[in-house]
Amino acid sequence: MKKCKPILRNSFVSILLLFLLPGCWSSKSIEDLNIAVGTAVDISKDGKIRSTLQYVIPNAIGNSNNKLPQQKPYINVSATGNSLEPIGWETTLRREGFISGAHEKAVIIGQNLAREEPIREITDLFFRDIDIRGSTLVFISKGAAARTLESKEPEVIPAIRLVEIAEQELTTKVLRHISLMKIWGKSNSQTSFLLQLIDIKKGEIELDGAAVIKGRTNKMIGILNKEEIEGINWITGEGKSGAVKAYQKESDKPTYYQIQSMKSKIKPHVIGGRISFDVKIESEGRIAEYWNPHFKPAFKDKTIKQIESATEKEVRRLVVNTTKKMQKELGVDVGGFGNQLRIKYPNVWKSVKGNWDEKFSELPITYDVSITIKDYGMIGSKKN
Length: 384
Prior knowledge:
This protein is of the alpha/beta class.
């Protein structure tokens, strides 16, 4: 009997623990969930908000049964209203099962809506929803945003594909992706900023320029093209990789410099109340392509200096043209100049921050560009 007592006691404790374990009584089968991965927000013809939610269909993912018609792995549900909250309830009533926003990947805002309403107000619901993560990426669509949530490819989920493309950062012709949390900070500080523009061309999503959001109004006021985005990335030093044209005349044979590292330092100066900026840009990289027009080895010092000089001129052209676009055409600072002034001269910043974009458009900016080729690819050798 004494030997049985420990066994009975242990059995009782084990049974009790089964009841105390955080089991799956409240869990939901994945097939019963409406997993939202993307949202497109447009302005309708009658001036109302039109929201399109993209839900994943788990049963359709990886369904390769050729005997049955291929089902798309997603479904889009749209509704119209005066704001996103009542639209959300309407779309909820159209779907059976629990709706989960924890896997939201992208919010796409139509260009027409972005010009009419502040970005902060359009995205307010996404900030407040406890299920939606602050890392969700935000884009502006050149046409209707709902178009970007469609795909002709059978196993593609458009919202997820868009994020995968944006996160590659393989070229300086696209922006670093912008999340909801970053927008929150810029909107609250009334800082002008950029959002990646997307378009549908020949049925495919394409990253195509940037929408310029003015700090004071928080609305879209213009567009930077791909070349001007290159200029912005050199000014801010945020480019991760990519290539730059390293020949000056169109009649010359192609030569391209591939970026391996990039850094930029914006230095403000205040002398006698006059504000100016010097920007030092440095990059190391390799020769990506060299058509060798005069059969000169690319790794000879004289040839290297010529390619470095040509690349420096091209980078300088990009940043100067982009600066002119910011200052003279758009009248906004989307290059981070004001932030550097705030850091180094906080008292001066306090006196100009109220009308900084207007002040910025009049300020002198000089650029110093230094390019160093350290690698020639498979032809030649690396510099130490």
